[in-house]
Amino acid sequence: MFRRRTALSVTATVALLAATPLLAACGSEAHPGAAAIVDGKRITVAQLQAKVRDVRDAQARSPEGAQLILNTGRLSLATLNGMIFDEVLARTAENAGVTVTRRSIQNWRARAEKRAGGAERLKAMWLQQGIAPDEIDGTVRNQLLLDGIAEHLRADRNTPQGQQKLARALSDASRAMGIDVNPRFGTWDDQQVILGRTKEPWITTTPVRQQA
Questions:
Q1: Among 24, 49, 88, 91, which has the highest number of CB atoms less than 10 A from its own CB?
Q2: What's the CATH architecture for 2-204?
Q3: Which residue, among 198, 171, 203, has the nearest Cα to 186 in the 3D structure?
Q4: pTM of the model
């Protein structure tokens, strides 16, 4: 069985707005060319644009392309939110001693493809969330990392208390990383672990959240 609206994911839910053009490649004066600085590492505007373009190209090839693009209008912000969250999640997993193997990713994805009705159907479902086909393994990895961190913390992700415990671990890691976002993209909120102008924190609808 699939769970609905319980999965933590690298992509925040995006508003139903018109597609946002790719942003200019210049950054802030303090960090030219950077969309964000995370733990001293630059996430460049060029890297962000490449990820957005990858999703848009995949959406454009879909029969429902126009609707997919409409439904992911704030894709640039959601994508940057996900890129920053990836780093926070990796630090939180490191703090907890949690790792994920390639085999576990493959096994999870194989089960998900079977439940979704095939590999192409799974790709289409993830694309609705603004996740390009070549990003699926990374998304699966994040799901497994979150599962592992929750297990380490003995946090039940199906309860408010468990969600709060997991949120605190992510928030603690986020604060320690000195995240600095280019003002044109908004402000990073360490408490909620979210880029301020995105719709929700790190809870989103996913098509294939599986029972353990």
A1: 88
A2: Orthogonal Bundle (1.10)
A3: 198
A4: 0.77
